[in-house]
Amino acid sequence: MTATDQRAMSTDAIWRLPVTVCRITQFLGERAAGALLERATAATGDALRPSMIRDREVVPDIRRSRSYQDFAAPELMSAINEVVEAVEHTLGVSCAHTEPSYSLNVHNDGDFYGPHQDSSAEFSPRRLLTFVYYLHRTPRPFTGGALRVFDAALPLHTETTGKWEERTWRDWEPEHDSIVFFLPSAWHEVRPVSCPGKQHEDSRFAINGWLCSPDPTAGSPKTV
Fold it and tell me: What is the rounded distance in angstroms from the CA atom of residue 78 to the CA atom of residue 95?
């Protein structure tokens, strides 16, 4: 190749890297998962509120679902504790002395959550690890609802690199009694759910949460 044949790489070139997701199936086992699903389906009425974005506002054009902020799942937290060391090693993050924050999220017909990050330098920087645990009746009474995780686009310091319709991604099915872990900085979304019967018990149930670094303004953190 002569000097005149050489061309520099286009300044518009985008290098895409797949985001690592840890996924574990049959996470709690049939009996424990069934009991947790019963508690999730029992969460109705005033316990469920419209889901918010950035923990402060309801924006139906971006996110549509219902959330139960005070839902308790100690058996799930205990199981996460058993695998967190392996997840840390895989994702390259340390979760020592973190504290959990989580809620139950319910998606029914037409519900979704558009592309977003769970944390950034400005928003919830204490979140170190995202986890999503899925629950639903079997056979699955809805379609859709996959977790779509977008590949990282370099250079990493430009969040707007490339148009959304040009992004590449991988979809993760919301399989009952499965859990996924990924870094909160990853761009992801919940694909629209189709639930023709529109019954609460037929919803896509998920326990969404994070392991967070201790709040310096609070007392001694809970160790997870």
Answer: 15
Q: What's the chain's length in residues?
A: 224
Distance, in Å, from the CA atom of 179 to the CA atom of 13, rounded to the nearest integer, reads 34
* Per-residue pLDDT tens digits for 109-168: 999 999 999 998 788 899 999 999 999 999 999 999 999 999 987 765 555 556 666 789
Q: Which residues of 54-86 are buried (b: 16+ CB within 10 A; e: fewer)?
A: eeeeeeeebbbbbbbeebebeebbebbeeebee
Which residues sit opposite 100 in a β-bridge?
211
Burial of residue 160 (CB within 10 Å: 0-12, 13-18, 19+) is exposed
Nearest Cα to Cα of residue 101 among 214, 19, 4, 218: 214
Q: How far apart are CA 13 and CA 142, in angstroms?
A: 39
pTM over 0.85: yes
Report the C-alpha gap between 11 and 36 in whole angstroms: 51
Q: Which of 224, 210, 185 has its CA nearest to residue 129? A: 210
pLDDT in the model for residue 222: 44
SS3 19: coil
Inter-residue contact 66 to 50 (CB < 8 Å): yes
pLDDT score of 2:
56
> Residues of the chain whose pLDDT is less than 50?
220-224
